[in-house]
Amino acid sequence: MTTSISEGRVSRLKRKMETREARIGIVGMGYVGLPLALLFSGERFRVTGFDIAPDKVSTLNAGGSYIVRILPESIQEAQKAGFHATSDYSQIAEMDAVIICVPTPLDDHHEPDLSYVRQTVESIAPFVREDQLIVLESTTYPGTTEEIVIPILESGNQHGFRVMRGADDSGIYVVFSPERENPGDDSVARHDIPKVVGGCSPAAAELGAAMYGTIFRRVVPVSSPAVAEMTKLLENIYRCVNIALVNELKQLCMKMGIDIHEVIEAARTKPFGFHAFYPGPGLGGHCIPIDPFYLSWKAREFDFRTRFIELAGEVNTAMPYFVIDQITAALNERTKALKGSKILVLGLAYKRDVDDLRESPSLTIIELLREKGAVVAYNDPYFASVGQGRHYALNMTNTPLDRLAEFDAVVIVTDHTSYDYRAIVEQSQLVVDTRNATKGIESPKIVRC
């Protein structure tokens, strides 16, 4: 049987992947793109990182890092394998594969903001060439790859190349493969996180699997980009819904005089049918607070309302307001009003031991405290200063922990492991703990919520 032209093209590009001769371009050198670039560099690929931020490009090319968990030495090691960064999108033409890792936030109306994806695809489209693999990793709603990315690629490239579908003999290969980063969690090596791949054609899926198979131990092919897009949303909505459940149960348990954390620890001894989730002051990060709204927005196109998911979002969104109520009540018990009180917020990051502020509940809590007249300061070992909050500029600088006694209340919002919680309790007048960080410490100063 004669081998088709397309089969020959796919085989050649697969060989380049397997022999590490393929050039890999990654657009977006943030919390997803930069670690991915290092994975490919670690497998001896020549990687080019694309970013529109000049400070990121210059830092990387100087062998430095702007992400706490990535050491400069890792960047310098990658440079030995050929890694460099650039803002010059014309270099896209030199790549065999281009992976897009840009933000997909929500706008002011809690609707998907795909401006970064659109702008990125518009920027690379003029330089995309035949037999190139284009991958979107940014979390988004089902249909984005086929409804937005492909039309821009096809209309914007200079040579009129089409995206390969079915048994086309030539064109561009397009894949969606959701990122599965979990910043601050080293319990699972990145290589061991299975990689989901959904291609616009069997050839695209085959090439995507071949490329990711060089850095991930397991690749999970699915039938389409839309399935891969929905997979990512399911993963994060699963977490969102279960966190909302324990946040609601926490409030009930407080009224009943029951420790929700003791309940969770007892429940997790069951060897089947239960996975532990923990309550907190609200959701943060680039996925869990955002993804439910992406699906709810898309569902309206099909005249369908995701009531269960929307309710979970409402519960989690309300948690910072619940924290404010608990701070107010704790101060009242000490005959103090929230207005005029000095409050120190411990932890700005959205989760422990990361330098990431995206959607952090700490920012919301600070804004709400200020609106109610409190005098607010913060401490976080990862942020010397903070400019923009969730809704307006905060313009704050880090407050040293040797000033704990000055504050009417210290509020633990992010439970960084570097904090000495026993010393914090000893030196503070009042500690409001939203993370159970003071577990095992008994003191009348502590209010857990």
Compile the SSE list and pairings.
Elements: H1 5-18, E1 23-27, H2 33-42, E2 46-50, H3 54-61, H4 72-80, E3 84-86, E4 97-100, H5 115-124, E5 133-136, H6 144-156, E6 173-176, E7 195-199, H7 202-212, E8 219-222, H8 225-256, H9 260-267, H10 291-299, H11 307-317, H12 319-333, E9 342-346, H13 361-371, E10 375-379, E11 385-388, E12 393-397, E13 409-412, H14 421-427, E14 431-433, E15 446-448
Parallel strand pairs: 1-2, 1-4, 2-3, 4-5, 5-6, 7-8, 9-10, 9-13, 13-14, 14-15
Antiparallel strand pairs: 6-7, 11-12
Describe this structure in words.
With 449 residues, the chain is α/β, with parallel strands linked by helices. 37% of the residues lie in helices and 14% in strands. It has three domains: 5-223, NAD(P)-binding Rossmann-like Domain (Rossmann fold), CATH 3.40.50.720; 233-315, Orthogonal Bundle (N-(1-d-carboxylethyl)-l-norvaline Dehydrogenase, domain 2), CATH 1.10.1040; 318-448, NAD(P)-binding Rossmann-like Domain (Rossmann fold), CATH 3.40.50. It has 14 helices and 15 strands. The strands form three sheets. Strands 3-2-1-4-5-6-7-8 form an eight-stranded mixed β-sheet, sandwiched between helices. Strand 9, helix 13 and strand 10 (375-379) form a beta-alpha-beta unit. Helix 5 (115-124) packs parallel to helix 6 (144-156), helix 8 packs across helix 10 and helix 12 (319-333) packs across helix 13. The longest helix has 32 residues, at 225-256. The protein is elongated and about 75 Å long. The model has no long low-confidence stretch (mean pLDDT 93).
